[in-house]
Design brief:
- The structure is a single chain.
- This protein is of the alpha+beta class and 464 residues long.
- It has a domain at 330-363 and 369-410.
- It has 16 helices and 18 strands.
- It has helices at residues 5-20, 28-47, 56-66, 72-89, 93-96, 128-138, 170-186, 223-226, 291-307, 309-318, 330-340, 343-346, 351-360, 372-383, 415-424, 426-446; strands at 102-104, 113-116, 119-123, 149-152, 155-159, 197-199, 203-205, 248-249, 254-257, 263-266, 269-270, 322-324, 369-370, 391-394, 399-402, 407-410, 452-455, 459-462.
- The strands form 6 sheets. It has a 5-stranded antiparallel beta sheet, covered by helices on one side.
- Helix 9 (291-307) packs antiparallel against helix 16.
- The chain is globular, with a radius of gyration of 23 Å.
């Protein structure tokens, strides 16, 4: 029997995929199929008493070839394949010629990010790249924190960011981190967590879709809301501390074999994903050891930015672009699709009914007044093809749109006006956040355990 059950399961799934899917898209389809199939195959392995007749991996192969395609779960997977294939057919010719193109990140019906050579290519649905390009010219000292765009047209060609290989000066890096924090707060950006930041000689947020964020009923905008910094030790996914402590998977069915070689699934397991948000260095110091550099960079950064407020106001006023709006956390949508993949769930109810019931009963983040029936109808349509629902607003408008153009809500104030009012009060806000940076890092450092365990490729986590 194989020593690594997950690897063996992936091998069988990839062999199956070769028969039904001509374009691989990196590990995208094999990851989805693994997450859907393993709970099903393991459940039916015992329900059908297959464990008395054959080993698990032989059964998994047979299940894929003869039973899986008759399930509701396969219908979800197949609708996702059709969505991706339809999007792929619209890609620019130079991208379609690249047979090694990869699908990265979440799938949305409106836009899917494809890695092609040195670029990330995706449909220009938000046009925020134009704003960021204008911002780079106005704030050249902060342009290093902004992704670079090779081409902005109907399709965006964003430069792929290569990983930092050489060791960096931690004092210089953490000074730049302070400036980066000031810049992210200045933009009222959200979703700037460890998965969306890469540490070079400075940090860079490679996906700034959620900027000029509106007012939310459920939380106030501050450094914790951005995803930049969290004081917790367990499951800390923040951009500053993510990867320094144990982070668990809760949605990945990790297959292992018991002593009698029968299959088991663990749902909560330490994540082994690679963290690239921490600086590459000879040592792994807690950021609080560099709090002087962080706060110096932060204070210099916000001082410069507040001096440029009028110039940035003009860019916001004169640029027509859209910003992404959060109505529910992305993680919640992923949890729902994971929950539906349990045989105990999908055998009892159709996916549309399950999603509709759960969505109707779940709270919203409330960026405005939401038309819940319209919202849920759209969300169900997207989840039924394993697509993450996507919402946006024009920066000068109050309407909240779903990706298909449906109006699902109305904000009291446009993102541009919210940001203008925020910018006018920024000195008080920035002073308060500077104190929060110090207190969060100080309290976290007191919990810091120096016993490290290799985690991912070039970072470490700490045992709880």
């Amino acid at each position: 029997m194989p020593q690594e059950p997950v690897a063996e399961a992936y091998k069988i799934i990839q062999e199956y995929l070769k028969k039904i899917e001509p374009v691989v898209y990196g590990t995208y389809f094999s990851d989805i199929l693994y997450d859907l199939v393993i709970p099903c195959a393991t459940y039916f392995y015992y329900q059908n008493r297959e464990y008395t007749k054959t080993d698990y991996f032989s059964y998994l192969k047979r299940y894929l070839e003869s039973e899986f395609e008759n399930t509701r779960i396969f219908s979800l997977f197949n609708r996702n394949r059709i969505l991706v294939q339809s999007y792929d057919a619209l890609l620019p010719e130079d991208v379609r010629k690249d047979m090694e193109r990869e699908l990265l990140g979440d799938v949305h019906s409106s836009s899917i990010k494809i890695k092609c050579g040195d670029y990330i290519v995706y449909r220009n649905t938000l046009n925020y790249a134009l704003f960021l390009n204008n911002l780079s010219k106005t704030l050249p000292e902060f342009s290093c924190f902004i992704p670079k765009f090779h081409k902005i047209d109907g399709w965006i060609y964003r430069n792929f960011i290569s990983l930092q290989k050489d060791k960096v000066s931690l004092k210089e890096y953490y000074y730049e981190l302070g400036r980066f924090i000031a810049f992210i707060l200045f933009l009222r950006a959200l979703d700037i967590n460890s998965e969306n930041v890469i540490a070079l000689t400075y940090p860079i947020a490679f996906d700034l879709e959620i900027i000029l964020s509106p007012e939310y009923a459920d939380f106030k905008y501050d450094i914790k809301a951005t995803g930049l910094l969290s004081g917790q030790t367990l499951d800390n996914n923040s951009a500053v501390l993510g990867g320094m402590y144990v982070v668990y998977n809760y949605l990945k069915p990790v297959l292992f074999l018991a002593k009698d070689e029968s299959p088991r699934i663990k749902w909560k397991t330490p994540s082994m994903r690679k963290f690239y948000n921490l600086p590459v260095s000879h040592k792994s110091d807690h950021p609080f050891k560099y709090i002087e550099q962080i706060l110096k960079g932060y204070n210099n950064g916000f001082k410069y930015l507040t001096e440029q407020i009028n110039s940035v106001k003009e860019i916001v006023r004169s640029t027509d672009f859209n910003v992404r709006i959060f109505v529910r956390p992305t993680r919640f949508y992923k949890f729902l699709t994971s929950e539906y993949s349990y045989p105990q769930t999908f055998l009892k109810t159709a996916s549309a009914d399950f999603f509709a019931k759960r969505l109707a009963a779940s709270p919203l983040l409330e960026p405005g007044k939401i038309h819940k029936k319209t919202l849920v109808k759209y969300e169900v349509e997207e989840l039924n093809k394993l697509s993450i629902p996507f919402f946006y607003s024009n920066v000068h408008s109050k309407e909240i749109f779903a990706a298909d153009g449906t109006v699902v809500g109305l904000m009291s104030t446009s993102p541009a006006v919210v940001w203008k009012n925020f910018a006018d009060q920024s000195p008080e806000f920035f002073n308060k956040q500077g104190k929060t940076i110090y207190s969060l890092l100080e309290s976290n450092y007191k919990k810091y355990n120096r016993k490290k365990v290799p985690h991912g490729e070039n970072t470490y986590f700490i045992k709880e």
